[in-house]
Every structure is written in C-alpha cells, then in structure tokens.
Amino acid sequence: MEKMKRENPDVVSSMVYGQTYEERNITLLKIGLRSTKRKKAIWMDCGIHAREWIAPAFCQYFVKEILQGYKTDTKVKEMMKNLDFYVTPVLNVDGYIYSWLNDSTRLWRKSRSPGPVGCTCYGTDLNRNFYANWGTVGVSTNCCEETYCGTKALSESEARAVTDMLGKMSGDILAFLTIHSYSQLILVPYGHPNISAPNYNELMEVGLGAAKAIKAVHGMDYTVGTSPDIIYPNSGSSCDYARLIGIPLSFTFELRDQGEYGFKLPEDQIQPACEEAYAGVQHIITYAHDKAFYSSAATVTTTLWTTVMTAWVFSATFL
Ligand code: 0X9
Ligand code: ZN
C-alpha cells in the first residue's frame, strides 16, 4: 500500500479507519483523480474471511490494474475523474496473519477476539456480525463454530470500522463489492430468505452481465443469485448491510475455484482468477458509473430540450 502511494502520489492516498482486536490498523487506499466536483465512490473490501487468500490478492491486482488503466484506457480515466475507489485489501488483518502462521491455522476464517465468558474458543465470523437481520438465520451462537455471529451485532471492531466508514460515505457510494472465495458466485442481497432487494431485477441483470464478462476471459462459469437461492441463507453480512443502508449495487464475489483446491488455490491460478474477476468487477463499475453520470446527463439534456421546445411552441402560437 505504501508503494502504491509512493509511486502514484497524485491519485493514491490511504486512510486508517479502524483497528482490529489485536490493535492492527485497518487501512484503505483511496484512488481517484483530483476533482473540484463532488465525486461518487466505489467500495471494495477483500479478506474479511482469513483463509480466502485469493481475495486480498485480487484487491492488489485491482489496484494495479486501475492505476495502469487510467494512463492507457480512456474509460478507466473517465471513471477515475468521476469516482473514487475505496479499497481495503485486507479487512480481517488478525485472522489473515494467523492463517499464515502454520499448516494448522491455514484454514482460519474468523476474527481473533476471544469468546465470551465460559467459552474457550476464539473468533467471530465477521460476515455474520453486521447489523442486517443479525443473528436470525445461517449463524451459530456457539463461539467454537465457524459461523459464530458474536454476542451482539457489531461486537467486533472490524465490523464496526466498516459500518462507521460506510455510514459517513453511504450517500456517495454507487457500488459495494466484497470479495471472498470460493465457489465462483456473484451473490446479491439479501441473505435472509424472507426479504428481497427493491432493485433485485437490476442486481440480477448487472450480476449476469458480470458473469458473462468473466466467462469471456478464461471460460469460467460464475452463478448469480441471492445466497438463499444458490447456497444457503445467512444474516449479518456486510453485503446485506450495504444494501439496507441504501447502497444500490451491492455484491459478494466468491472467486475460484469450485472446490477442487478450495481455499488453497494453487499459485498458477492466482493470475487467471484475478484477470477474470477484474472483468466482472469492471462490468459492475462501468454500469454504476454510466448510470450515475450519463442518465443524469441525459435527464439534463431532456429537460433543456423540453424547455426549448415549449418556448418554441409558445412563441409559434402566440407571437
Ligand atoms: O458465508 C459467507 O459469509 C459467504 N460465503 S463464504 O464461503 N466466503 O464464507 C457468503 C455470504 C453471502 N451473503 C450475502 N450476500 N448475503
Ligand atoms: Zn468468505
């Protein structure tokens, strides 16, 4: 992150927006061209689940690509003028570092906070700890389980950090993308089976467009849908929280593979997995950008045109 800032001081800055249980910084990179106009934002976080190592790799790849892209690709440059990208390469820093410790900790998923009194296990599933139908479905209340949702919503400082940051920025965020592995899925809100997003059709259409873009890169199939429809119901996820507070486009990506290697994706798949996921993400970002900047421009044009025509009809009739 420091290197990216050093090499691109005009477009990259960083911000510490929280601390983990073990008091490490939670840091994001803000990437965008300076502008006098009010900019919209795209949120991306990776590594909320410790063992899903392809996710932090993807955030790095994404940062590298957009930093190259804005020099060579006019669309990326245009988006960098209108948007700021807020990228958290590793959200669950404690868990991620723990998963690098040795073979026995490699598959750690949760945070690293100790369990409540009377429970000797560690960690809360950060993707069950958000204030989004917290504790209702697809969670465990046993602190030794992988999907332990914590003692209450936002018991974890990592979930609080994201919530606070989103709260400050939510009016400006066009798209919220949270990157996981594995299964090759693009999940749309909600994880709760009884509620559905008001723009479900739009989310599905954009998600299917992203899956098509992914397939065009290396032929990989990604399935699109809500988690109850295609995997399992769940509550307290960051993706659901983002949609609940009004961020219109909220997606969970589950990157490669489909179970052959699972979380231990071999090194030679890092590059292709990132390339295809980049195409999917780019589809969503482009849609979000064009909707915000072109349809409002179109509205202005239509309004102007209507005014001109009304004046013309008025003058033709009465003058
Ligand atoms: O269970 C999860 O937290 C996610 N899958 S994973 O295998 N990476 O753990 C999926 C969460 C999806 N939930 C919503 N989008 N609501
Ligand atoms: Zn995950």
UniProtKB/TrEMBL annotation:
<dbReference type="InterPro" id="IPR057246">
    <property type="entry name" value="CARBOXYPEPT_ZN_1"/>
</dbReference>
<comment type="similarity">
    <text>Belongs to the peptidase M14 family.</text>
</comment>
<dbReference type="Pfam" id="PF00246">
    <property type="entry name" value="Peptidase_M14"/>
</dbReference>
<keyword id="KW-0479">Metal-binding</keyword>
<protein>
    <recommendedName>
        <fullName>Peptidase M14 domain-containing protein</fullName>
    </recommendedName>
</protein>
<dbReference type="InterPro" id="IPR057247">
    <property type="entry name" value="CARBOXYPEPT_ZN_2"/>
</dbReference>
<keyword id="KW-0378">Hydrolase</keyword>
<dbReference type="GO" id="GO:0004181">
    <property type="term" value="F:metallocarboxypeptidase activity"/>
</dbReference>
<keyword id="KW-0862">Zinc</keyword>
<dbReference type="GO" id="GO:0006508">
    <property type="term" value="P:proteolysis"/>
</dbReference>
<dbReference type="GO" id="GO:0008270">
    <property type="term" value="F:zinc ion binding"/>
</dbReference>
<keyword id="KW-0121">Carboxypeptidase</keyword>
<keyword id="KW-0482">Metalloprotease</keyword>
<feature type="domain" description="Peptidase M14">
    <location>
        <begin position="1"/>
        <end position="288"/>
    </location>
</feature>
<dbReference type="GO" id="GO:0005615">
    <property type="term" value="C:extracellular space"/>
</dbReference>
<feature type="active site" description="Proton donor/acceptor">
    <location>
        <position position="254"/>
    </location>
</feature>
<keyword id="KW-0645">Protease</keyword>
<dbReference type="InterPro" id="IPR000834">
    <property type="entry name" value="Peptidase_M14"/>
</dbReference>
